[in-house]
Structure to design on (726 residues):
């Protein structure tokens, strides 16, 4: 009889855990002798960055603007690629870094940024004209789920908002249709954006197997399996090719 | 044994509470929802339903977790009261009716069920913004609001006079979260404002925005007093609709020279609520023209009829979309008794006369006789002329007709009720200038007969007579008293 009690208790306690598996909060643990993921993202060849024509507020925005979508070095290294270990649900503490989204010369800067759930967005307007800043989780097929839509009518206006909703978001200004950038709101500290040389490094991961998301605005998304070993750097290189 | 049963019961709670089949946790809400809401909003809350192609705006897809109508700051989900309000009061101008048949408990259960379609969204904290006490309306505050309207760039999208015709703010490809097109609100049409048209409603919309649309939140951008000033100005733009059955057409010596002549503003008017034409192919299930304002004047020689309606973006037909257009119809035969021709383009027994103006041929009247939508014949010579303007989102079209003697033209007889109806077309909305458009019911216009001379002679004579008789009576009474 006792055994029945015990097993019933165990089942009872486990059930919510099983059901909550996908919404499990991130758990901070001491990471000693963790591993890292390191690599370079490249393009199979050069891709011309589009130039956007501007027909509004030209005095501030100029007549045309480079999209800054394909920032590719002479060695075909790709900047602004998001690399995120989405399934890391345990590890080091989430950094207390805030994420700046600046409306500057009718462009959102940076083009690709990482924000951390629990941190803050610092949304700025550096232009002397009206911008609004609308963040939305990308749902595909041109659909999204609005996270914030804030008006910044004045120069140097700053609005701070908490980062609450995780996921990859598009940032848009409804007043200037060409303006866009991307913010990845991460539940864990394990996300990075590639630099000019296409390099990234994600440190202090607990050893284990992870699925890593590699995403670029123009090239699209791939998910890679990576095994991280204690004290070692796992290599993760990828070469995108334009379809 | 009792303990074991107790444990099993305890066990069953987490199973129901946390299982993926959320509906099981709220059978009452699911029952009401599936019975009354799912036909439009979808059984899974995803708006996958039969009505999605024939309603504008489309039914809300709850799985997105985006809510336009909230009392909470941008980024926060709506409160239960916000959702309850829409269920109870409906959403004017949409297919969402007010639901009064349910008990409060049933509504509460439905709200819970609706929330279960976007559990992530509703896991967040929700707190309405503080509305406080609105400042009183005054000339000064409305002036301040008008200034803010420019500074806060409301004007970019909503246009100088608030008709939603901002020339640089909005693009034809403005999309909502759900991926369908959206245009800025027309503040002059209070009845079209889904989030309400009272001062507080406007203030709330300015403050928290409409999530999922380009309407942005000013809560963190403008101080409270400026948002109230804006709300006062925007509220002051609303038209007062004058509804009725008949339009009085007064007689004047000379007619206003242009459709946008300020002289028209003093002329009596009638507002015609418009609805989609649903009887004949091609039908219009999703009209955008909701009101046409009609005015009329006549002289000894001519009758003029002014039609005005809002169009947020004019189309003259050159951009691949049909041209904007308006049509007025009258019965061909003199109207007697209570029977009217069929409301849309008549029948062979009771044909109608139609004058149509198109933005593609600005100075031409397409004059036709119609015996039904498929029996329309153009006339050799138009019996009317036309003038049109488009200004700040408003079309003004004046039809002018020569008045012959009543004998020759029994339809336009002075002093009689003359039936007319309007069809208006918005090219941007794919309305074709034929059958796909917004229609009105039959209304009447009456050219008021000039006041006959007797009116000026008889009453003074009678008044004088009464006065004299009164004095006489008074005197005779005084005499009697003394005596």
């Amino acid at each position: 009889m006792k055994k029945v009690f015990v097993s019933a208790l165990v089942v009872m306690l486990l059930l919510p855990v099983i059901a909550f598996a996908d919404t499990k909060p991130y758990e901070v643990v001491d990471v000693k002798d963790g591993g890292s993921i390191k690599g370079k993202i490249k393009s199979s060849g050069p891709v011309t960055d589009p130039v956007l024509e501007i027909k509004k507020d030209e005095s501030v925005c100029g007549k045309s603007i480079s999209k800054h979508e394909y920032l590719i070095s002479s060695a075909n290294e790709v900047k602004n690629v998001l690399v995120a270990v989405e399934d890391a649900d345990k590890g080091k503490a989430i950094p207390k870094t805030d994420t700046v989204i600046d409306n500057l010369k009718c462009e959102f800067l940076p083009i690709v940024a990482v924000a951390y759930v629990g941190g803050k967005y610092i949304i700025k307007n550096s232009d002397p004209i009206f911008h609004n800043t609308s963040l939305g989780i990308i749902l595909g097929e041109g659909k999204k789920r609005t996270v914030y839509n804030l008006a910044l009518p004045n120069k140097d206006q700053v609005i701070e908002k908490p980062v609450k909703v995780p996921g990859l978001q598009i940032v848009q200004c409804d007043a200037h249709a060409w303006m866009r950038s991307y913010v990845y709101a991460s539940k864990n500290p394990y996300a990075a954006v590639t630099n000019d040389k296409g390099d990234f490094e994600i440190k202090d991961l607990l050893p284990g197997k992870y699925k890593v998301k590699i995403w670029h605005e123009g090239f699209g998304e791939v998910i890679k399996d990576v095994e991280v070993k204690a004290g070692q750097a796992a290599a993760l290189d990828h070469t995108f090719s334009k379809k | 044994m009792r303990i074991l049963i107790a444990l099993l019961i305890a066990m069953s709670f987490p199973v129901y509470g946390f299982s993926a089949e959320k509906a099981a946790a709220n059978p009452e809400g699911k029952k009401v929802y599936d019975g009354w809401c799912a036909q439009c909003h979808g059984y899974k809350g995803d708006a996958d339903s039969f009505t999605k192609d024939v309603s504008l705006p489309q039914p809300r897809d709850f799985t997105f977790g985006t809510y336009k109508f909230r009392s909470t700051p941008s980024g926060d989900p709506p409160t239960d009261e916000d959702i309850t309000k829409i269920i109870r009061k409906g959403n004017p101008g949409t297919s969402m009716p007010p639901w009064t048949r349910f008990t409060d408990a049933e509504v509460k259960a439905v709200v819970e069920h609706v929330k279960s379609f976007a559990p992530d969204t509703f896991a967040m904290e929700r707190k309405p913004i503080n509305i406080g006490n609105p400042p009183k309306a005054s000339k000064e505050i409305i002036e301040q609001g008008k200034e803010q309207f420019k500074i806060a760039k409301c004007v970019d999208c909503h246009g100088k006079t608030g008709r939603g015709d901002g020339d640089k703010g909005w693009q034809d490809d403005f999309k909502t979260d759900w991926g369908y097109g959206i245009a800025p609100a027309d503040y002059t049409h209070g009845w079209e404002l889904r989030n309400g048209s009272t001062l507080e409603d406007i203030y709330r919309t300015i403050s928290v925005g409409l999530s999922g649309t380009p309407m942005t939140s000013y809560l963190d951008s403008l101080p409270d007093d400026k948002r109230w000033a804006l709300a006062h100005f925007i509220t002051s733009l609303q038209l007062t609709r004058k509804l009725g059955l008949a339009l009085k057409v007064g007689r004047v010596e000379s007619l206003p020279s242009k459709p946008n002549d300020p002289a028209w503003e003093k002329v009596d008017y009638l507002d015609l609520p418009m609805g989609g034409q649903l009887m004949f192919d091609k039908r219009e299930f999703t009209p955008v023209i909701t009101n046409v304002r009609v005015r009329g004047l006549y002289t000894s020689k001519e009758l003029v009829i002014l039609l005005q309606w809002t169009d947020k973006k004019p189309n003259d037909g050159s951009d691949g979309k049909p041209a904007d257009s308006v049509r007025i119809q009258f019965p061909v035969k003199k109207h007697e008794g209570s029977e009217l021709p069929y409301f849309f383009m008549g029948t062979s027994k009771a044909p109608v006369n139609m004058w149509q103006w198109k933005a593609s041929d600005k100075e031409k009247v397409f004059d036709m006789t119609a015996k039904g939508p498929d029996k329309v014949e153009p006339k050799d010579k138009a019996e009317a002329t036309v003038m049109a303007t488009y200004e700040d989102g408003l079309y003004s079209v004046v039809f002018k007709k020569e008045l012959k003697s009543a004998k020759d033209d029994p339809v336009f007889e002075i002093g009689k009720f003359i039936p007319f109806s309007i069809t208006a077309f918005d090219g941007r909305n794919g309305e074709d200038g034929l059958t796909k458009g917004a229609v009105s019911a039959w209304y009447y216009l009456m050219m008021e007969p000039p006041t006959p001379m007797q009116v000026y002679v008889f009453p003074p004579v009678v008044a004088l007579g009464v006065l004299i008789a009164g004095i006489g009576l008074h005197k005779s009474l005084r005499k009697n008293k003394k005596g």
User: Anything to note?
Assistant: Chain A is about 10% helix and 45% strand.
